[in-house]
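User: Quick sanity check before I run a bigger batch. Here is a single chain. Can you write out its predicted 3D structure?
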Amino acid sequence: MSRNPKNAATNNTIRKATGSEVEFLSLILHELKHPLTPIRHSLALLKTLCAESQQQHALGTLDHQVEYLSHLMDDVMESARIRCGLVTLKKQWVDIARLAEQAIDAVKPKIEASKQHLYARLPEKPVLLFCDEARLRQILNHLLDNAIASTQPGGEVQIAITTTENHLILEVGDNGTGIPKARLHSAFNLLSPAMDGADASITGFGIGLAIARSLVELHGGSIQACSEGIGRGSTFTVTLPMVSTLEVKNALPTGRPKQSKRILIVDDNVDATDSLSELLKLRGYTVEKAYDGITALQIAARFQPSIVLLDIGLPGINGLDVAKRLRAESTFVKPLLIAVTAYGAESDYRRSREAGFDHHLVKPFGLKALSQLLDPQSPPSDAI
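Assistant: Done. Predicted structure follows.
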């Protein structure tokens, strides 16, 4: 019996990536991210300096496209890591209601820009779940982004969190394009929209949903897609196991004390360093910069920065060794060390922690994320 080539391609299982393939992909994405970093800094600087509405609109468009490229590369890399079994969970007690509120705040600009309406039904009291906070935030972000992308202007996006005795149930729904019933079983398969000739209104490669499913399953949970068909919206339901909290002390994180405004930027990417330096100076920070590790140590001994933004891949001595010396030598004030690198694998995070870094930012990092590290007690700002 002959087989339909189209169906055969759809049903094939995607081969699991090898470690060497993931490493090669990581190197490629690292090189692609290099030019995005100074572009992003320069755009933020221009947005601060330009007042005309047409200029602001054009710069905003460029900024959104750079952010899209950055997120796309991160998703490709994350998908490869998951397929290679390189993702591990760092579980702690997390207030899921608070996490959902943060996720909602993060997508409000997209909701407003699309003239959509978001309705949330969240627990009034804290609901503690033993999970990986960063990974659960990823799950929420992917599901909300998918709902927003699938919904027309004026449409509705809903998020709801409920609990049973043993499970937490998270639902993200919309009244947008919907999913053909024949595709529900493959909604979370990587590349399924591109491979099965789905309706033209359904775009993308399914990377976000594939990542969400993998992360949910790593937590011992399940995820399901439900839709009545094209044009009738869809709902994604995540079910996660809950365990007894017993008595959890210090379960919710506390803010760091306000940081000083003396910052040392260390990066061999001259354009990225100079543009970020000018941007931080406009915000009132005192900034010094270095393009290699030896110069950075010399400046740090004189400048005594309270915050160091330190690239890992430096000429001469790398950023990991610079961080170790900043932590070990008594001549340096103990600064807040923030790793700035295009590498974001689990092993990269581990190495930066072992070297003494407090935080790890992956290029091209969002300026809101940097703002929160520089001054955790201040509300996020679009331009630091």
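The first strand starts at residue 92 and ends at 95.

User: Great, the batch can go ahead then.
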